[in-house]
Structures are given as C-alpha cells and as structure tokens.
Amino acid sequence: MTGSAGNARNAEAVSRFVESFAAHLVEAGMPRMPARVFAAILSSDEGSMTSAGLGEQLRVSPAAVSGAVRYLAQAHMVSREREPGSRRERYRVRGDQWFEALTNRDAVLKRWEAALREGVTSLGADTPAGRRMSETLAFFEFLESELAELMERWRVRREKLSGQE
Prior knowledge:
Shape: elongated
Largest sheet: 3 strands, antiparallel
Radius of gyration: 20 Å
C-alpha cells in the first residue's frame, strides 16, 4: 500500500490500526462494521474511499459497506460524494467530523429533554420516578449548555492551530 505522497505504507500495520481503533469505537457503543469502515476511511491518506476499496481492504461484502456507510452518514461522520464523470460514490471523512458529529447531537439532546419533561409531568415531579426523570433532565440540560460552550472553545482553538486567527 502506498500513500498519496508516494511514501510506502505497511499494509499490515494499517490493518492492525484499523482493527484496533475500530475495537475502541465498538467499546464506546458504535456497531462493529461502521466502526471498521470509519477507521479505514480515517486512516486513508485521501480521507476518502470507494465502496470497492473498502470492501477489498476490510474483506467484506458491498452490502456490509453500504449498511455501514448509511449508519455513518446518519451520524454525520462521513459524507458521500460522486467521483467526477463516474456513477461511483466516494465516502469521505473531514478533519472536523468529530465536531460535526457532536454538534449534530444537539438536536438529539433536545428531543431527549422534551421526552424527559413529558416523563416528569406524566410520572409526577414528587414521585421517586419523577425525581429520577428530573435529575436526568437536569443532566442533559447541563450537558447541552456545556457542549455548546465547549464546541465554541474548540472552534477558536482549531483556528489557532491551523493559523487562521
């Protein structure tokens, strides 16, 4: 395997990294195949791969790649793009995929908060279950406010790191 700059890459070492990083993602709750696909794309020099390239590298079927990419696209961790002059798609990770994935969790947090508010109302705020729901709601409200501030601090830091001040 060679990198885009012509630097030789050890295919076995890359494969070990992909499987190792994927295992960490699985431990964190990501399904196995999306984790492997994400790690493979992330470790490619171009930051993008075709379905055929992923299937070949990971030794999996096109259907497995398709399902994994669907999951990753819904989680905003990869994007699809057409190769110019071709019907083939490439799947790409960007340098800010973690930022985007976490930022898009804001909508999920808001839905959870709404459901928890409904739960508190339904169960009664003064019941043991209602108090548990209230505490969970308070945690997600706290997380949402902290996440917004954290993401802004990261944006500023990233600009400094890339020299875009």
